[in-house]
Design goal:
The chain is mostly helical and about 90 residues long. It is about 65% helix and about 10% strand. It has one domain. The chain has a two-stranded antiparallel ribbon.
Amino acid sequence: MTEEAVVFIDDKEVKVSELSEEQTYLHSQLLDLRNKEASLRFQLDQVAASMSVFQNAFIEASKEVAEETLEQPTETEEGEEDGNDS
């Protein structure tokens, strides 16, 4: 036997079938909004995880560029290697 859906209004159990037309409409709105909230939270979790991956990749790429820059000889070092002090 299937149990009938109920809602709680001020701690009082009310069958959905006993709700007025306006109450039924508002109840449907609330259910839809709860579902949307859950979906958006799920999507935000995905966005946060993706942002973390991209942020870490960006940091690693920045470290690589910094290391390459530090490894390149500067103009002063190049002049010193040629024996030119000017």
